Amino acid sequence: MAKKSKKSKKEKKAKRKEQRRTKKTIIEISPKAEKTATGGINFSVAFPATIKEIIGRTGMRGEITQVRCKVLEGRDSGKILRRNVKGPVRIDDVLMLRETEIEARKLTQVKRGS
User: Fold this and answer.
1) Rounded distance, CA 79 to CA 70, Å?
2) For residue 49, with 0-12 CB atoms within 10 Å meaning exposed, 13-18 middle and 19 or more buried, which class applies?
3) What pTM value is reported for the model?
């Protein structure tokens, strides 16, 4: 009986190892991307906009940057918007905007203690 339990332990170990291997080979698709019936991927429509001015930092810890950007394509091409951006950005970077109608609120400079 001792041999039988060792064999089953080895089988279980090999099975777990194989499962780990298959997990590593699976490629995850972005949640914003959609799968089609043919197996291809459709990405959502986005419009390019270049950053023209960096206004300032916002957010609880200053992790968001407010920028002014000019929409390059689409219905609102040429329009200058104020947007909040997370992550590192510089002037003349290109943002891909999923919508070009909503604008971010203006930053208010509030001094601490008042």
Assistant:
1) 6
2) buried
3) 0.59
